[in-house]
Specification:
Blueprint (H helix, E strand, L loop, with lengths): L1 H9 L10 H4 L19 H23 L9 H10 L9 H11 L12 H33 L7 H19 L2 H7 L4 H32 L10 H15 L9 H12 L7 H37 L2 H21 L3 H17 L3 H8 L12 H8 L11 E2 L2 E2 L4 E2 L24 E2 L8 H7 L5 H22 L1 E2 L24 H5 L2 E2 L3 H16 L1 H13 L2 H7 L14 H25 L5 H27 L10 H10 L7 E4 L6 H8 L8 E4 L6 H9 L14 H5 L4 E2 L4 E6 L8 H5 L9 E6 L2 E2 L5 E3 L1 H15 L6 E4 L14 E3 L3 E4 L11 E2 L1 H8 L16 H23 L3 H14 L9 H14 L2 H22 L3 H20 L3 H15 L8 H12 L9
Parallel strand pairs: 7-8, 7-14, 15-17
Antiparallel strand pairs: 1-4, 2-3, 5-6, 9-13, 10-11, 12-13, 14-16, 15-16
């Protein structure tokens, strides 16, 4: 039928001029493979649909079994809170996700019996459902790619259908259980929904290709010329999805390059072209795709709001824009300009999808508690879209690291005089380099830059090797552990053991696939290029732009706070297509080798081989990854947030540090209604003027605005204080007004005077210089105004805040659990502050530790670290209680945390072990000290000693060893000390370290013996 249609088309007269015949003609188009086998007698479409349904249900069940039932750490708490109350999340926002999430929250009452936090469960369900649909779309895409060289399913034999569907199943289900995609699939985040848009666009453009070929063949058969193909509806739908996807995440736009290549090979490419002409055409298609990409981003997304703001009347601008687009659609339709008409319609639907950003302006104007960047004006909205709060990253040109000076930026000099050139404002001019890779001026980043010989070394070794290739191998070869910067492994060859597995979670985080998914994907890539190099090239481009392309764009500095593998899932999706095609290719090769055999035998061999491939790739990946991707039963983030809020007095202000000690608090307050009287002040956001202004002017739930000494003008122009000179700060105190239930009734207040004074040192900033960040200036202003008003609101620093952000106020701290209160008089209680037993016990009585003693619940490294915080907090409180004679209550605290935060589930860190040992030492409990330090603290010390490669590492190991030795000697645990020395001797292969308990006892007695008295003096 296709061949007869082609013959009829050639005989037709040429298209009219308006139709661009060179772009649209289909002469010499490669046709589908002719029918060479007997079609499958069964209902093929029914089989295909049942297989696809099975793929969807398989993925859905996996994700439902492993989904997070509450709010996890990182951004999910912010997303759920923003969705629940239609608030403005961090830039550049996700308005479509917010609208969709709000709809899902209406389903929360249905999940009351499933999750203790049904709103969080319902929002997490978006990712679950979206990911399951993505998996089935992956299957359908693989089958579509197979159809391009096999022909339409109506021509398939039973073996053909089996190999195509088996490839789709194996590739899709392998992708379903890849490390990064599965992680995104079970929590409230935008990446799962963004991946759904990407998979949908890829599937739709393949549908468009097939529909276009069929429709044009039918039109040629009738001697007609199309004005606008019905199949172009797919292109309009794709354009609309791009517009909607902008309101989820911008990663979806990268699929545009895949779309462009499929369109080029379908509409433009000719079989009679020379290779040079074809590659020129491919390059032109890439340029066109790039132009469209930049027209959308930053063109539509950032430029249009900027122009609207510049006009002074955004409403008028957008009315004019709608009129222009509408006119363009009508004119191109009437003048029969199909390409221009399609372009105008595409622009219209992209703008329609982009219009979801209107909710950001509307909701920001309502001043919700979460209103990041406050984008209610045109200027603020543009800044929000540009993510200006995060700073700028140089892409093509910028200042770069100079190995000669050890700093970023090389000053431009006069070539004759050698004098440094300055700009109009008097600042030195800095030379810009092409593609700068080492651009960050953070001192910690500069220290890392020195370890690389050049920019290319940093790019290949860190940005590409460490921040992409390592993640790629995690998906398809294996992963050593969940510890930050963990390497990839395959399970073949020498074992790479970088950490000691001390808990079920740590053991679960080690996954090996023996490189089988990688091998099958490489086979699929080769097979795809052999069978259909055009679509294979399109998949390759998708793989590269969503992987290496993102690496080039992000230009990441070192010392990332978390792994960034979630950004490259679309690249892993592209490779998973080749896994499926590899399975299909192997099945084809096997059945072709048996072409002389009966059809039933060929089908049986193909079925058995498909089963083996399924078990070897997606089956193995499922069994390896299930335990460390299971979020069910984990309540840590919610409980940690609740416990931190319950550590504060009524109407408190609490300074928090980053995402994990802020977003869960927002979630608890906004969604669960917990302690809405507490005002959470995030120190990271406190570096921005808009956030300081919000704190000063706006209520947040039940918390009134925060007074501060800074005026509005001072806030608008606030800058870091460079070259800060240490200064004594004095604040007024009115003892009669300073009253609070935890101070007046429970604590000693005899130290309250008429003022408090301390020295604000500032932060080290290279050499002798000191620095105060904007957050330091703002938090100091808040404390100063609170003092001026008589300390009406208790002020706390979260226990997770770094010491250099605490304004040197440690001598004024009172330890109240997960928060340290600032008192207007010296407490001198150490870095955590003094302990008031009644206050500590009151705070701890409300703490929850759900699941922290359950070995069946998986806790990743971040969760383990957060859970271990409880030990440090309880140990510090126990020491304070012992000092006040409350030994038994202190012992009960340590026993409680040991039972509820099981060491077998949440392994203690070296620091928490040391603090716990100190608490037992203060009690005089030798057995407690020994049981605490053996074997875990000793293991830390021995491992540090054995792995030390530098002088600094050796010094650190020596400090570990020294503390343990001193603890044993002070508590007279000579047997334990002797055994520890034996371990050191074995680790160093130096028997001189061995010493008996009796020798240690004599040394201790000698050291403690009184010095002889000189009778002649």
């Amino acid at each position: 039928m296709r061949q007869s249609c082609a013959v009829m088309f050639v005989s037709q007269k040429q298209s009219p001029r308006w139709y661009f015949p060179r772009l649209w003609r289909l002469k010499n188009r490669p046709l589908a493979a002719p029918l060479t086998t007997k079609p499958d007698g069964m209902n093929g479409k029914l089989i295909d649909r049942l297989v696809a349904a099975g793929v969807f249900l398989y993925a859905l069940v996996i994700y439902l079994l492993t989904m997070a039932e509450t709010a996890p750490f990182w951004d999910s708490g912010e997303f759920i809170a923003s969705v629940y109350r239609l608030q403005v999340m961090h830039p550049p926002g996700a308005p479509f996700y917010i609208l969709l999430g709000r709809f899902f929250t209406f389903l929360a009452p249905l999940f009351g019996g499933v999750s203790p936090e049904p709103v969080a469960f319902s929002v997490n369900l978006i990712s679950v459902l979206g990911s399951a649909v993505t998996v089935v779309l992956t299957h359908l895409v693989i089958v579509r790619l197979v159809r391009i060289w096999k022909g339409t399913p109506e021509t398939w034999s039973g073996v053909d259908r089996l190999s195509a569907n088996a490839g789709g199943v194996i590739g899709a289900l392998a992708f379903a259980v890849t490390d990064s995609f599965w992680f995104n699939a079970v929590e409230a985040e935008v990446y799962a929904l963004s991946m759904l848009f990407t998979a949908l666009v890829v599937w739709l453009i393949l549908r468009w290709r097939e529909a276009t070929l069929d429709e044009e063949a039918a039109l040629r058969a009738r001697g007609e010329h199309p004005f606008g193909l019905k199949a172009d509806r797919y292109l309009l739908l794709i354009a609309y999805l791009f517009g909607l996807a902008i309101g989820v995440h911008l990663l979806n736009l990268l699929a545009l390059f895949f779309v462009a290549l499929v369109v080029f090979f379908t509409k433009v490419d000719r079989e009679d072209w020379t290779p040079l002409r074809r590659w020129i055409g491919i390059a032109v298609a890439g340029v066109v795709a790039a132009v469209i990409f930049f027209a959308v981003y930053p063109g539509i997304i950032q430029w249009l709001p900027s122009v609207a703001d510049a006009m002074g009347s955004p409403t008028l601008f957008f009315l004019l824009l709608v009129a222009l687009v509408t006119t363009g659609v009508v004119v191109t339709q009437r003048r029969r300009m199909p390409i221009a008409n399609l372009a105008m319609l595409s622009l219209a639907v992209i703008l329609l999808g982009y219009s979801t950003y209107g909710i950001i302006l509307v909701r920001s104007a309502a001043d919700p508690p979460i209103d990041l960047n406050d984008p209610e004006t045109g200027e603020a909205f543009v800044s929000y879209l540009k993510r200006e709060q995060y700073g700028s990253t140089p892409l093509l040109f910028g200042a770069n690291y100079d190995p000669q000076t050890g700093q970023v930026g090389r000053y431009r000099t006069n070539p004759v005089t050698g004098q440094v050139l300055v700009d109009e404002e008097g600042f030195p001019e800095v030379e810009e380099e092409f593609l700068p890779r080492r651009w960050s001026q953070e001192p910690s980043h500069l220290a890392v830059y020195r370890q690389y010989t050049s920019d290319w070394d940093f790019f290949w070794s860190y940005q590409l090797g460490h921040m992409y290739v390592r993640y790629f191998m995690w998906q398809f070869a294996g992963k050593a552990s969940d510890v930050q910067d963990s390497p990839w492994i395959s399970g073949i060859g020498p074992d790479v053991q970088t950490v000691a597995f001390r808990s079920p979670s740590e053991r679960a985080s080690r996954n090996v696939y023996f490189g089988l998914p990688l091998l099958l994907g490489l086979i699929g890539m080769a097979f795809h290029f052999i069978r259909d190099w055009r679509r294979a090239f399109a998949v390759l481009i998708l793989f590269l732009v969503t992987g290496i392309g993102i690496i080039l764009y992000l230009n990441q500095p070192p010392n990332q706070p978390r792994e960034r593998d979630y950004s490259y899932v679309a690249s892993f999706f592209a490779f998973s297509l080749w896994i499926g095609l590899g399975a299909t290719g192997l099945l084809e090769l096997a059945t072709d080798a048996l072409k002389e055999q009966a059809a039933s035998m060929r089908k049986g061999v193909a079925g058995a081989m498909a089963l083996v491939l399924f078990l070897a790739v997606p089956g193995l990946m499922l069994t390896q990854n299930f335990d460390d991707h299971d979020r069910s039963g984990r309540r840590l983030a919610s409980d940690f947030a609740r416990n931190m809020l319950e550590s504060t007095a009524p109407n408190a202000i609490i300074f928090t540090n980053g995402d994990n000690d802020t977003y869960p608090l927002w979630y608890l307050q906004d969604v669960m209604g917990v302690r809405r009287d507490v005002r959470v002040v995030n120190l990271s956001l406190l570096n921005t003027a808009w956030y300081i202004q919000q704190l000063k002017e706006q209520w947040a739930l039940d918390s009134p605005p925060i007074p501060m000494t800074l005026s509005d003008d001072e806030i608008a122009n606030i800058r870091p204080a460079y070259n800060y000179q240490p200064t004594d700060i004095t604040l007024p105190v009115n003892p009669e007004r300073f009253v609070d239930e935890t101070i007046r009734e429970l604590a000693d207040t005899t130290g309250i005077g008429s003022s408090m004074t301390w020295r604000l040192e500032g932060r080290p900033f290279g050499g002798e210089r000191r620095l105060l960040y904007v957050s330091d200036l703002a938090s100091l202003s808040i404390i100063q105004e609170n003092a001026r008003q008589g300390w009406p609101r208790p002020i706390y620093f979260a226990s997770t805040v770094a010491s250099d952000s605490e304004l040197n106020l440690q001598p004024f701290f009172q330890d109240e659990g997960l928060a340290r209160r600032v008192l207007p008089f010296r407490t001198d209680g150490g870095p955590d502050g003094r302990v008031v037993p009644e206050i500590s016990l009151r705070r701890f009585a409300n703490y929850q530790f759900r699941g922290l003693a359950d070995p069946d619940v998986y806790y990743d490294q971040n969760s383990r670290n957060m859970g271990d915080t409880y030990r440090r907090v309880f140990a510090a409180a126990a020491v304070g209680m012992v000092e006040q004679g409350r030994t038994e209550e202190a012992r009960a605290l340590l026993q409680r945390v040991n039972e509820e935060v099981s060491p077998e589930v949440i392994p203690p860190s070296y620091l928490s072990l040391i603090l716990t040992a100190q608490a037992y030492e203060a009690m005089g409990d030798t057995a407690g000290v020994v049981n605490t330090l053996k074997p875990m603290a000793e293991d830390y010390a021995i491992n540090a000693l054995e792995s030390a490669r530098t002088t600094a590492q050796q010094d650190e190991a020596a400090q570990y060893i020294r503390f343990i030795q001193i603890a044993y000697m002070r508590t007279q645990a000579y047997d334990a000390a002797s055994e520890f020395y034996d371990r050191i001797a074995e680790a160093t292969n130096d028997p001189s370290f061995r010493i008996t308990p009796e020798e240690l006892r004599r040394e201790a007695e000698t050291a403690l013996a009184p010095a002889p008295v000189d009778e002649g003096s």
